[in-house]
Amino acid sequence: MYLIRRAKLVIITCTLVSIIAWGGFFELQRLAVQAQMPFIFGGRIKKVEVCTCSGSLNLTIGLPRPRQLLYVPGASILYAFYQIFRPGPWTLGMYTPGAVCLMAQKFCTPVTIPPIGTIRIVGTSF
After folding, report:
1. Residue range of the domain that includes 23
2. Under DSSP, is residue 30 helix (H, G, I), strand (E, B) or coil?
């Protein structure tokens, strides 16, 4: 009787340890993928502002990965249907942190809500 209880306890313990180990393994895989791709954005273009002094576009991207980003012609690579210049199309791409959008008022001044990064590559829907 004692040996049967002990055997059941060992089996249950091994099963629980295996489940926890496998769950931890998959969680580490998920975190590794997120660490490799932290600067990804995607969603509908909600607003496009022309940065008149810096010659770029300040884009407000909506859900599911909302961001305020800067599109710089010549530095940003544009793929697919080239619909970056108007609100509405869906986007998907990568960016690098850091950007400044300068607007001409009396002097060239930064926008009120600054972009968080400069678009490296972007594709759009039609």
Report:
1. 1-36
2. helix
Phi/psi of residue 14, nearest 5 degrees: -60, -40
Are the CB atoms for 58 and 117 separated by under 8 Å?
Answer: no
- The least confident of 29-33, 40-44, 79-83 is 29-33
The number of distinct structural domains making up the chain is 2
Q: 52 Cβ partners below 8 Å, 6+ apart?
A: 102, 103, 104, 108
Inter-residue contact 86 to 48 (CB < 8 Å): yes
Q: Which residue has the tokens 């055997």?
A: 7
For residues 56 and 86, membership in a common domain is answered with yes
Residue located via tokens 């306890």 = 9
Q: State whether 72 and 88 are in the same domain.
A: yes
Query: Taking the model in full, what pTM does it have?
Result: 0.69
Tell me the pairing of strands 67-71 and 117-124.
Answer: parallel
